[in-house]
Structures
1.
Amino acid sequence: MADVHHFTYGAYNPIAAYLLAFLGSFLGLLCTARARDAHNRSRRNRWLAIAAFAIGGGGIWLMHFSAMLGFDVPASPVRYDIIHTLLSLVFAVMTVGIGLMLVGHGNRSVGRTMGAGLLTGTGVIAMHYTGMEGIRLSATIHYSPVLVVASALIAIAACTVALWFAISVRGWAKVTGAAAVMAFAVCGMHYTGMAAMSIELHPEATSRGGIRPLTMLVPIILITTATIVGVALSALQAMTEEEFTDGAGTPKRGVHAETPPPWSLKQASMGAIRLTPAARAVASSRAAAGSRPSPGPRSSPRPSPSPAPVVPPATSGS
């Protein structure tokens, strides 16, 4: 059996792996919290899909290959097959997404969460050992059945706890604590699975096809950056749409604007600016007429007395 090193660069790899697992879990839990507050199914599915990329792509897959950068076999060159590497990414994102969809809809229950955790944990195990199958060595890899079963149980337990956190925790403190627990479980599953392997060298150590481990550092950094930026932009866009649209996706009317008072100085001044000169003159005359004291009630005119008839003086007969 050949010597196997899992910490070639000391503590840098496990620390980087843990931080990636923590960051992916933290972003994923924030997205699942937003999914629980979504008012329709399409928006909830969108938040859950973002969470699947954050947890499956960032918290699990990137953590796995960051830790694998510390894997080395001094007696044989180590290479990685790109097809198996990308296939393991698909397993991680798809199974986490399916698990989140199962627990993200309907009533919360222990049975549903455990079933989804079993499915997601199986997918994480497939991700890990598919990635390990992509290792190209001049040797044969053997696995300890006991440690393989232990890593599988840890993966299922970690995924079940993660899904329970996804539908339960709220608040920055609880999300941070839950992400720390999830990152510890994911890293524990990975290093348990790595401890299960042993290597039997071939008689002649020949180089096999694949990419070098340090060559993977560039795509890992690029994928990490793209994942974080993509999750942040998708979350920002979803938050903006939820803020300014209703549940059906139509713009809200008057929801974010404060109801103006019936009259204000600003409205009066803006109204005066919009008036034409003729309208201003009419408004000024009306205002002046309104400022004069109103006359009292008008009485009906009294009829003027008719003049007395003039009687001519009487004349005597003489």
2.
Amino acid sequence: MRDAATRQGPGRMLIAVYGIFAIAATSRSAVQLITRFDQAPVAYLLSAFAAVVYVLATITLALNARRVALVACAIELIGVVTVGFVSLFVPRAFPDATVWSTFGIGYGFIPLVLPVLGLLWLRKTA
């Protein structure tokens, strides 16, 4: 049972939410990069980066690859806090929103809460 620690109980819901965000962020960034890259390249590249982080977190949590999951969740938390502050205080830096803009307000602040829950779950199941 130890091998499946991150995907037991509440971990299943955490992985499901990460999976939903991986699909949503990947789809959104793909459309943005293909159709409007010249309008806000930094914002759209950040959305693509967020998508990669969500995919990585989903897979590593599901596979119980704890160290990589820890790094993915930490990068996600640093990213959402950094982009959140920059988007608040230097709004010109992001002419269009990213998944992490204003701490994930467009997604009900789930991008801010999700890495915290991921890190707490990794600690609890350690």
3.
Amino acid sequence: MDVNDRLEQNQNGSGPNLKPDEKRLYLGTYRERVILAIKTSQINDENAKTTLADRLQANPDANLIIDQNQAGGAYIDYLQLAIKSGNNYSLLSNNEVSKAVSDPYAIVLAAKKAVNIDNIEL
């Protein structure tokens, strides 16, 4: 590929993506940035909400990413936790879910930089 073509692709945002499957799985972020990930099957679990509230307070610069389709009506509870703690949040409504996962993540708390936490699930 010609260097000028590659530069033009990147300027238009149509260049190659780094780890697209990983970004799909973790709601648009990379695994190394994930602080906590809550699966769709865990969305109504009170322990999930409590754990998330604790992690939000411990990580005030983290961004809460909510997939509204996966979280269903419970997304409002998680949104309120982010607002109450003062964390930034993102709502996804057209997220492309990884087809390789039977129980995808509905909620992801992500740092701006790599944190490399080994156990990100409940």
4.
Amino acid sequence: MAVANAAVKIPLEAPVVERRVRNRAATEQAILDAAKRLLAEEGFQNFGINAVARGAGCDKQLIYRYYGGLNGLLEAIGTDLGSWVADRIPDDTGGMFLLTYGDLMERLSMLFLDALRADPLMRRIVAWEVSESSEQVRRLSEARSKALAGWIERMRGSLVPPKGVDAPAVNAMIFAAIQHIVLASAVSDQCAGLALKNSKDWEKAATALKRIVRGVYG
């Protein structure tokens, strides 16, 4: 026979402070995701507090509270772009032996090509770099460039470019070429007569890019 006054187990809820912290983190992430999505789809023209709040499904006052307004939100997106490089361009060799600086740059070129093709927001930012001159674009561009430079420094170790080669200038040209063909393909599925419609076309482009890298770095 059960004892009448036996203790009844009641599920414990998370402490109020813990729930608030968790809810704030979720809201901050929702705001950041909405801001990135809005930038990717519509650009800066319609980028505002009200539009971001609608996309995040929250009160616009929370954007001011958590990010201090649009400038703070852009700073957070810039920081997130640094994470973009870490997520999309991992610190590993992909099974490739990095014996020379040329190996390093071939690996980075292929990773950057694939990452840029897969990310509409990053493509937008690259397009803005050559079409707009604003503080917002500059912040986002610098965040990506800094993250890429950091990847090279972490991965290259004792690897150095061939003597007499201005590696920063050459690498800038390589990145510019990658950015141009990716943007061109998004508009017309081709670049300077090179078809970029399917995986076979992109394999051809990747092979050509590797040859350019090897032509400079060996």
